[in-house]
């Protein structure tokens, strides 16, 4: 216990040291996982789609993941909620006029003495983020550990109409750098309780050309990933609703699809393209088709800038139908509702589900005898629902959102053929904290019954030291404190049932701590 107490003391000290290095330190602070903060429109506007008719339909990418919170200057407050307007006194200087102005400006670095606005007016929008993700388990699991990881990202968006005077769309570029170890391998856990970790790597995360052709059709092509396009999140109050949670089971997509198919996920980038159709000429209905290279090696450290198809095993072919209802924003009009139904076909030839037995700490002598074979083509589907449940009558920038999803995978190859998650977020926890959040979410993961039955048969034959893989469920509760528009500080706790998919270890309690800064 003395060793564990020392580890926790060192971890907390490191966390407070990190916060003290941020301007204003913890005592002054306000910050997501990248909850992304959307800048105040007149300060750092997002790129404008080239076709005026498409403005209400196509949302150009400003940042992928992570994301912090939107403070809407237009939101009418009819009550006595205390709010501070966004301020940026660096319009003609590099440093804010006061500490208060610095803590209320849209981003950490402000407007760069007017240079930022100058660039945006000419079609170049530059944003960035720093995000740290720490977690430890004081009880349960295989052993008690503490882990820290971080990500730094730079996003550059080019509005080609402003740059060239021609309606030729938008160009997006994102580069990220990650470092740090994950806690999941030590628990062990099938879904990482941390949304980011990895060997020190600087990698290309997005290089794409987006083109809204008219109000009926939009396309994207380049080095992209399916996570930002299919079975993905919705935005509420300018925030990624899935990434109000630290667990990677939820943020930034239902995790099982990444295990069960060639679905490409952030921050990797794969050669790909998609096309989206709006039959009614608005965003109430859409149908989308995509094609992405399946490359099992792309996440390797040395492949951070891989731009070719060498090593690809096939093509991931998803489609998605979307129904959307809601006002022009989350602060007025009808409450936002989204329903997404989709599926995929993966052309890769892969080993069947018995090849995944090693994930459950099954001794090697039992893996040799497993009836493993190869399968050409994997398939699956999903259903997602999210809705703004309510908006406070006298403070419309405060409200409650909900989401839930069901993901299904090919029973021949899917290690987790059934996966369910849900989450609820309340924005505006107290009258004096209108932009803070409190979030509660759960995930339910079921292991393929073929693996359960195989191990059960071995146990019946007298083999010992085996634990049947069955399921892994988890719950998370956290509080998102936003002391400034550009800063998120989010402590939370997670509890995992049957960690690692078996009953080998005690259920772990995880204490987590996130900090996000928007540059």
UniProtKB/TrEMBL annotation:
InterPro entries associated with the record: Carb-sel_porin_OprB (IPR007049), OprB_Porin (IPR052932), OprB_sf (IPR038673)
Molecular functions per Gene Ontology: porin activity
Record GO biological process: carbohydrate transport
Transmembrane portions of the chain: none
Cellular component terms per the entry's GO annotation: membrane
Record-stated family: Belongs to the OprB family.
UniProt cross-references to PANTHER family, sorted A to Z: PORIN B
Protein name: Carbohydrate porin
Organism, as annotated: Gluconacetobacter takamatsuzukensis
